[in-house]
Amino acid sequence: MGREMQARTSFLHNLLHDKTANTLAIAAASLIPMMAMVGGGIDASRYYMAAARMQAACDAGALAARRAMPTTVMTSEAQTQGLNFFDQNFNDGLFGVTNRTRAYSANAQGKVTGTATGTLPSTIMAAFGYNTFPISVTCTAEVNISNTDIMFVLDVTGSMADCPATSGCNSGPGSKIVAMRSAVMSFYDTVESATSASAQVRYGLVPYSQQVNVGFSIPRVHMVSNNTYQSRVARFNLAAYPGLNAGDPIVLSDQVEWLPRSTGNFNTSNTDNYRFRTDGSTGTTARNACTNYPATYTVNIAGVNQTWQVFAATEFVNNQWSGGNANNRAGCRARVRKTRPATTTEVTPQFLDWVYCPVSTGTASPCGVTNPAGSPAGWETVNFSTLYTGNAINMPLGTNGAMTSVTWAGCIEEPSTVLTDTYSPIPANAHDLNINLVPANETQRWKPALINAVWKREDTNGNQINWLYQTGDESRPGWACPRPARKLAEISRTDLQAYVDALAASGNTYHDIGMLWGARFISPRGLFATENNTAPNGEPISRHIVFMTDGAQVNSNENYSTHGTEWWDRRITGEGDGTREFNRRAARLQAICNAAEQENVTVWVVAFGTTLTQNLIDCASPGRAFQAADNATLTARFQEIAQKIAALRLTQ
User: Fold this and answer.
1) Per-residue b/e over 426-450, b at no fewer than 16 CB within 10 Å?
2) Considering the domain boundaries, does residue 8 fall inside one?
3) Are the C-beta atoms of residues 619 and 605 closer than 8 Å to each other?
4) Helix (H) or strand (E) holding 572
5) Is residue 95 domain-resident?
6) Rounded to the nearest 5°, which phi and psi values hold at 193?
7) What are the Cα distances from residue 22, in Å, to 10, 11, 12, 18, 599?
8) Measuring CA to CA, how many Å separate 131 from each of 46, 151, 407, 477?
9) Quick one: pLDDT at residue 37?
C-alpha cells in the first residue's frame, strides 16, 4: 500500500516537472477560446451576409413599391409589388432565418419607408449560449427629379371637344380636352412633388391642329420681308379724265352761241326768248343789253351747276329770226365757254373686278395686273415691318381694292422644302424639317400665316382652278390657329392651369407640324440653343417630349397649314394631290421623331380614345407608346410617364 502511494506520487511529480506534458495541457486549455473565436467569425459572417441580403431585398422592394405608386399614396397594389420584390431577393428561410417580417408605407410626400426583421440561428456560438441573432433593416426610396425639360405637344383638333367613345357622353365636362387639362395638371403635380430643390425643371407647350402658333417666339430677324399668298389683286379701268382732280373744270363746249334776252332763260329752246327788238328806243335798249352781256354765269342743268362764260365782242344781228313782228327779229350772239366740275368718279380709275391668283408682297404688277396711274395703292406698298411690331399690316384687300388692316395671330408658314417621298435621311435643303434650323437667307426664314389675305379659287361647281376673275369674294380655305405655344420655362401651377384651361378644340390633325415645333423648342441646338444647352447648376439636362393625340392623321389639301394651301401652293406634293400629302406627312412625322431622338430627347406618345397606330408607335422612343381609352386612364398614363421621367433613388 505504501509502495503504491509512493509510486503514484512519483508519477504525478514526474509528470508535473515533465516539460513535454505541459504542451498537452496548454493545448487542451486553449481549445475553448479558439472555438469561441472561430465560431464567432463564422456566425458573424453569416449574420453580415444575411443582413446585407435583407438590406438589398428591402431596397429593391422600396424602389418597386415607389415606382408602382401612381400618386404619393401607397396603394395595396404598390405594397404588394414591394413585398414581391422583397421575397424574390430574400425568400422565407434564406440563411435559416425565421420569424421574418417586412412592410412598406409612404408618407404624404410619397416617400416609401420599408422595414424588415428576422431571427438568424447560430451554429458554433450555440455552445456558448448564443442560440439566435436578431436582424433588423430599414430602407427608404423616393422619386427625385434633377434638371429636366418637358415639352407637351398637345392635340387640340376639333375632335377633342368630343368625349371618348367608352364614356358614353357627347360633350361638356367629360370631353377629351377637359381630360387632357386634368392629365397635364396631374403630371405637373407628380413631377413637382419630386423635384430636387437644386434642380431646374422647365415646361413647354405646343398645342397643334393644322397649324402651330409659334410666330411670337421666333426672333424677328428670322422672319421674311416678303411672302407669296393665294390672294387677290384689284383691277381698275382708266379714269374718264386722267390728270384732273375732283372739282377741276371739265370743258363741255367753247363756241359761238345765241344768247337769250334774260340770263334766266339760259338753256331754253323757245325762240321767243332769243328775240331782240330793233325799233326806236326799245331797240336801242335791246342792242345795249347785247353789248353789256359778257360775264360769267352759273347754270344748273340736271342738278349740276355749270359755269357759262360769255366773252366780249358780242354781235347784234338784225333779222335773225323769222315770223312774228318785224321789229322783234334781231338776235345776239357771242363766244360761250361751258364747264362743269369733275367728279371723283371721273378722275379716279374705277374698280372692275378681282383677279384671284398667287400674289407676292412688295410687287408692283402682281399676276400681270398693271393698274392705271391714280388707282389706289397696291401690293408694292405692303411692308411686314408693322406686322412684326404691331401684329397688323395694311393690304389692298378692302372694298374696291382699298387698303385694309390684316391682323396676325402668330401662326406661321414654314421655310422651303424638298419634294420627295423619302425622308431618311432628311434632305439637306428640306429646311422645314430641320429641327435645328437657324436661317441664313430669305428662303430659310419663316413667314406669317395671314388667313384674311388668303382665298381659295373654285368655279361655280366647286372645282379647284388656278385662275379666277370675279367681282365678289371667294371662300376661305380651312383654318385653325391654336393658342400661342410656350417655350421651355419654369412655370407656376396657377399659370399652367390658366394656360390649359384656355385651350380650345378646332381644326384637323397634322401630327408632323406639332412634333416639329416640339422638337425645335426642346433641342439643345438650333434656334433656342442658348436657352436649352445648360442648366444653372451645371448638371446634365434630361429632355422629354410628351406627345398626346386623340386621333389618326387627318389632312385636307384645301386647309391653310404651315405649308400654305396645298392644292394651290403645292409645297409638299408638287401637284396638290391629297393622298400624296397624307403619305408624305406621315413619313415626315417619323423623320422628325428620329431627329428629336438623335438630340437625346425621349419621345413619349399617348393615343387618347383612339387606336395606337403603328406610325405613333414608331414615333415614340422604345417602350414609350401608351394608349388611354377614357379620361381616368389618360390621367393614369400621364402620371405613369411622370413617374418614369423621375429618377427613383434610395435615400437611406
Assistant:
1) beeebbbbbbbbebeeeebbbbbbb
2) yes
3) yes
4) none
5) yes
6) -70, -15
7) 17, 15, 13, 7, 81
8) 13, 60, 88, 88
9) 53
Please tell me the distance from the alpha carbon of residue 209 to that of residue 213, in angstroms, as a whole number: 10
Residue 31 sits in the same domain as residue 120: yes
Cβ atoms < 10 Å from Cβ of 50: 19
| 172 and 288 together in one domain | no
β-strand 486-489 against 201-208: which pairing, if any? Answer: antiparallel
The last residue of a domain, from among 460, 477, 494 = 477
Is the domain of 229 the same as that of 362? yes
pTM of the model: 0.76
- 381 three-class SS: helix
User: What's the burial of 6, exposed, middle or buried (CB within 10 Å: 0-12/13-18/19+)?
Assistant: exposed
Q: Is residue 575 part of a domain?
A: no
Per-10-residue mean pLDDT, the chain, length 652: 51 56 51 51 78 92 86 89 94 90 90 93 59 88 85 96 69 80 93 82 97 97 96 94 92 96 92 92 89 94 95 93 91 96 92 95 92 89 89 95 96 98 96 98 97 95 89 95 98 97 97 98 97 91 96 94 97 96 97 97 95 94 94 91 74 54
Give the model's pLDDT for residue 172.
52
Q: What is the rounded distance in angstroms from the CA atom of residue 404 to the CA atom of residue 385? A: 16
Residue 36 falls in which region: left (phi positive, over 0), alpha (psi -120 to 50) or beta = alpha
8 Å CB contact between 331 and 283: no
317 lies in the same domain as 353: no
Q: Is residue 228 part of a domain?
A: yes
List C-alpha distances in Å: 93 to 60, 118, 137, 517. 19, 10, 17, 57
pLDDT, tens digit (0-9, with 9 covering 90-100), for 144-194: 778 999 999 999 999 999 888 655 555 456 799 999 999 999 999 988 887
The grid coordinates listed for 417 are 422644302
Q: Do 355 and 307 fall within a single domain?
A: no
Residue 452 DSSP one-character state: G
pLDDT digits (tens, 9 = 90+) for 571-624: 999 999 999 999 999 999 999 999 999 999 999 999 998 889 999 999 999 999
Q: d(Cα 588, Cα 507) in Å, to the nearest integer?
A: 20
Distant-in-sequence, close-in-space partners of 631: CB < 8 Å, separation ≥ 6? 164, 167, 174, 176, 178, 179, 182
Give dist(CA 484, CA 641) in Å, integer: 25
- CATH number, domain of 171, equals 3.40.50
> For 446, which DSSP code?
B
Q: Are 82 and 68 in contact (CB under 8 A)?
A: yes
Are 153 and 514 within 8 A, CB to CB?
Answer: yes
Separation between Cα atoms, residue 209 and residue 511, nearest integer Å: 8
The span from the CA of 212 to the CA of 561, in Å, is: 9
All cell numbers assigned to 542:
434630361
- Closest to 620 in 3D by CA, of 647, 582, 585, 589: 589
For the chain, the C-alpha Rg in angstroms (whole number) is 48
Residue numbers of the domain that contains 202: 156-213+425-446+481-551+586-610+626-633
Supply 581's cell numbers.
400629302
